Write the structure tokens for this entry.
Amino acid sequence: MLEPLGVAIHALDLGHVRLGAVAAVVGCGPIGLLLTQVLRAAGAGPVIAFDPLPHRRAAATRFGAAAALDPAAVAPGDLSRVTGDGVDVAFEMAGTGEAVQLAMLATRPGGRVVLGGIPASDRIAFGASAARRKGLTIAMARRMNEVYPRAIGLAAGGQVELDPLVTGRFSLAGAPDAMAAAAARTGLKVIVEPS
């Protein structure tokens, strides 16, 4: 669990999050949920989460999101109702063009967007006009950089909860069942324990 936590910390660093900054997390899988916790630990202001799955939205609010919304229920023209003038930084952690576009539309002019989701193919597309018009800074996140000591410190200090994210534990012999559970996306994080 320290590796996905490290990815969330690295994304936070790329977002240049300031104390009290308003943030959005688009995609509330394990890394998005860890990022929500890390944002709160870093002193971010309200965190707004977006995910199509109800159990992930519920988890986002448990982990500190001020609001967790179904992206399909928020029309682009209604984003201002949720984000006001826009968030200071948006983190895309879903790996879809729709998620990237939502992150860009939710961000205020001059804000930052961190793309951390892994698309199904090697390409992702989005409308560039919103990003250009707003003068957004776009950063790409991959892996976790050199943040293991910080990840360990946050977990050991209780600033980030890891155990509640694990919703399935399987033996090595049960690895096929673990992969099926992960693909079904009915839980959060599935772990295979070799012993």
